[in-house]
């Protein structure tokens, strides 16, 4: 028969730690201004971890006492580990699990490291971001590093907007810059990098660029030299890059600058830049073809925005996927089943065996003959009509640096609806029929693809939902309710 008295033993050792009778070890722990001395028993420490066993063999006793010193460890964290060594109980309290893991590795406690790493992996709320991100050597804790890098990429501003971002080590910053899933726009990444560079330059740099001397730019360039190759300047808008270039011409390498300028202003550019994907974003966009940055550009065209295109966080529309050819099929009947009478839509087409991405905007809707009065009936049977509008357009975003926008030039021929065809713009300016397409300029300003007939690899259609309208309606409704209440109160009085 076996009896388990481990709880009693744990309690007794806990009492021994609180009142260390017969101690023969003094442990001096310090971190910054925090210092504390602990008293312990060498036989317990050596039996629980090899770190103390090795250290004590090389340390001489003085009056029967060994003195062990350890810097850069929080006394609060060490107290947690010392209690674990004596009792087997890991009492976390409000301490950072990452700090405990780092200290546990230093003191040779692999079970603690393993247990807490598992807990952090399974419990996002157990992290203390953004501080935890800079609290450990990423190369020594690959599991923690992977999870924390993934988390920061999904919630970048929690780190980038904090004071801890300026303390991120260069190698970790470069890992972030390499990530496709870092959910920031490229111009934002550049602006954060400049702040990091100014903070981490061993030279006093004024925040006011107008006061900088050539030497200041040289110092900043030296600090950022290893980071700049990972900035995707070619994914900025041309306007943003020109502004960046104007401010930091002496920081961006000359050869790289020449390539970027060539990319932005040569529509035939076939640079490897084209193969680098756009970064992910927090904007909810379900597409196999375009990214949120493309949606921001298209939104700017819809609103006829004349200056810089919208940034992703400024997109005023919801792009709601209502049709995908690889999911619903290329059957024309399926297109009409899913897309007719849905209001404004965007069509996005990926051309087979090419990098071509083209599309069009229909502000009216497909085959909704009852809603619009301004129509020109070129075909009178089976409700085949051509709609009139001045707001439709077709486009190409194959070269995102120099996209092609082609607005309607013949308003009476803007949108063609035919039950036997897919989405059609103008008179063959952009026609979709099953898995083939035609593009021959007639009703729109420009041709958007060099070939007249092409095969379609995939096409998607998005319903465009005005987000600003819903918020305006909400304000209008609230105002109406308030006015009604005021009038009602006045009548009663």
TrEMBL record:
> What keywords are annotated for this sequence in UniProt?
Membrane, Transmembrane, Transmembrane helix
A Pfam entry, by short name: BTB
Query: Does Signal appear among the keywords?
Result: no
Q: Does the keyword Metal-binding apply?
A: no
InterPro entries (UniProt xref): BACK, BTB/POZ_dom, SKP1/BTB/POZ_sf, TLDc_dom
Domain of life (superkingdom): Eukaryota
Extract the signal peptide range: none
Give every TLDc domain span.
288-465
TM segments?
474-492
Tell me where in this chain the BTB domain is found.
23-94
Protein name as annotated: Serine-enriched protein
Q: What's the source species for this entry?
A: Rhizophagus irregularis (strain DAOM 197198w) (Glomus intraradices)
């Amino acid at each position: 028969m076996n009896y388990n008295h481990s709880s009693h033993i744990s309690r007794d050792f806990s009492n021994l730690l609180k009142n260390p009778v017969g101690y023969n070890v003094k442990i001096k722990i310090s971190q910054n201004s925090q210092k504390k001395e602990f008293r312990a028993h060498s036989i317990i420490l050596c039996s629980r971890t090899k770190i103390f066993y090795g250290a004590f063999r090389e340390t001489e006793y003085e009056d029967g006492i060994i003195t062990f010193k350890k810097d850069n460890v929080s006394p609060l964290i060490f107290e947690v580990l010392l209690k674990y060594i004596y009792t087997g109980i890991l009492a976390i309290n409000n301490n950072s699990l990452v700090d405990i893991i780092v200290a546990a590795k230093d003191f040779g406690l692999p079970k603690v490291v393993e247990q807490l790493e598992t807990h952090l992996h399974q419990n996002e709320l157990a992290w203390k971001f953004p501080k935890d991100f800079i609290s450990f050597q990423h190369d020594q804790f690959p599991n923690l590093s992977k999870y924390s890098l993934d988390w920061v990429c999904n919630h970048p501003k929690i780190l980038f907007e904090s004071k801890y971002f300026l303390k991120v080590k260069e190698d970790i910053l470069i890992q972030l810059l390499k990530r496709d899933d870092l959910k920031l726009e490229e111009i934002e990444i550049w602006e954060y990098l400049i702040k990091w560079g100014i903070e981490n330059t061993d030279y006093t740099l004024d925040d006011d660029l107008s006061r900088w001397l050539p030497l200041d730019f040289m110092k900043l360039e030296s600090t950022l030299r290893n980071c700049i190759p990972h900035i995707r300047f070619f994914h900025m808008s041309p306007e943003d890059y020109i502004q960046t270039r104007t401010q930091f011409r002496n920081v961006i390498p000359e050869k790289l600058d020449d390539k970027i300028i060539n990319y932005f202003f040569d529509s035939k550019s076939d640079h490897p830049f084209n193969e680098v994907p756009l970064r992910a974003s927090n904007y909810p966009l379900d597409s196999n073809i375009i990214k949120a940055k493309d949606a921001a550009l298209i939104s700017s065209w819809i609103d006829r925005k004349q200056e810089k295109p919208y940034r992703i966080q400024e997109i005023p529309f919801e792009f709601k996927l209502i049709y995908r050819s690889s999911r619903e099929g290329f059957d024309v009947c399926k297109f009409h089943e899913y897309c007719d009478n849905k209001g404004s839509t965007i069509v996005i087409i990926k051309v087979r065996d090419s990098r071509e991405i083209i599309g069009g905007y229909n502000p009216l809707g497909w085959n909704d003959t009852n809603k619009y009065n301004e129509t020109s009936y070129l075909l009178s049977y089976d409700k085949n009509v051509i709609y009139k509008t001045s707001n439709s357009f077709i486009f190409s975003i194959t070269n995102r640096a120099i996209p092609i926008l082609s607005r309607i030039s013949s308003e009476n021929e803007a949108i063609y609806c035919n039950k036997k065809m897919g989405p059609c713009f103008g008179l063959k300016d952009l026609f979709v029929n099953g898995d083939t397409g035609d593009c021959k300029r007639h009703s729109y300003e420009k041709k958007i693809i060099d070939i007249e007939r092409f095969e379609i690899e995939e096409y998607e259609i998005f319903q465009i939902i005005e987000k600003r309208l819903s918020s305006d309606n909400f304000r209008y409704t609230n105002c109406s309710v308030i006015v009604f209440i005021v009038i009602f109160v006045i009548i009663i009085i």
